[in-house]
Amino acid sequence: MKVFVARQAIFNRKKQVVAYELLFRDGKQNCFPNIADDAATARLIMDNQLNLGTRYLTSGKKALINIGEESLNQELAQFLPSSDVILELLETIPPTKDNYERVRALFHNNYRLALDDFTYSKDWEPFLKLVRLIKFDLVESPLETIAPLVEQLKKRKNLKLLAEKVETEDEFIEAKKMGFTFFQGYFFAKPTMISQQDIEINYAIVMLIYAEVLKPHMNLGRISELFAQDTALAYKLLRLINSGVFPIKSRIESLKQALVYLGNERVLKFVNLIMTAHVATNKPTELTRLSIVRSRFCELIAQQIAPGVASMSFLTGLFSLLDAILDKPMELLVGRLPFPEIIHDALLGKPNTLYYILNVVRAYESGSWWALQEACALLNMEDDNLPEFHASAVTWADMYREHVY
């Protein structure tokens, strides 16, 4: 399959190209995609950094890459080599104390930082000690309106200023007189599209890996077996190891060795990167969260009435929303799931114990008392413990989210 990215050149005062901003694109149309900032950043990393690398796209020059608040929370930047990139902190990030600590951690990990479409407030003062570049959007902030602020910022020796959306030579000349060092806009060059070949990822395998990393005790051997079932995922994993993000002390000879080298925490974040980029790109994150709650809810019910199928009940709940997440009929998806027939049947609505457990969960979610009584009757169970099970499942899902993010 083809993946797309746009790059727009950034020029110095002599009109020489010194860097490129990389912009995610989801097709041949050179326009902003209708997806969340974090999903766009995750796709940019997965499709490009973990494919041929950002240096290939920028001919060895620095790459400016957008980082939104959720990407900051998820620490997606750790999958980018600090020597190759400048992280553009989007204007949608509020200057809170928590965000300051996250930005400070990036600074101390040798990432160069920029503030995008900057609008000054006192809350940004601590951040100005950490960033090296400030971008002004000349459409939103015309030169005459920001002249006093530019004069103040020029006094800070650690800061350089970039004028974005420079449309005319007059704007370029005026910005240069005011003290801007770098320039970007249609006067110089429009974003140019670059396409690359990439391997399509098997979403079912991604979800299986996701199920494994949800477990309290991560089994890297089992996870490596799942990575081995999908060429694209195995390639991305090995590209990550060899991308310059982490120092390599010895040759990697197996997928399990690669996972062990990353360690449990990085594996969690890598799987979360994959999920953000390729599973729920155009869907609300609530769908993914709900599938996690369902998985634990189903498991707790099974532990009470049929302990022997508890683990399979967990997977049934986890995959019960896969058709909604991927916008494909469940009939087309279950064939790609290496599950026993009992899970396949439950997901396709064929009556069995797992299907009945899932129906209890669905009835509870819908708030329909009659449907819940009918679903419980098919399992010969009481509904007394369901509120406790549901509350426990929600807490468990939220604890996992906090740990990953």
Short structural summary:
This protein has 405 residues and is of the alpha/beta class.
List the helices and strands and how they pair.
Elements: E1 2-11, E2 17-25, H1 37-49, H2 54-58, E3 62-67, H3 69-73, E4 85-89, H4 97-108, E5 112-115, H5 125-128, E6 133-137, H6 143-153, E7 160-164, H7 169-178, E8 182-184, E9 192-197, H8 203-213, H9 220-228, H10 231-241, H11 255-262, H12 264-278, H13 285-305, H14 310-319, H15 322-326, H16 330-334, H17 341-347, H18 353-366, H19 369-379, H20 386-404
Parallel strand pairs: 2-3, 3-4, 4-5, 5-6, 6-7, 7-8
Antiparallel strand pairs: 1-2, 1-9
Describe the structure.
The protein is of the alpha/beta class and 405 residues long. Helices cover 51% and strands 13% of the residues. It contains 20 helices and 9 strands.
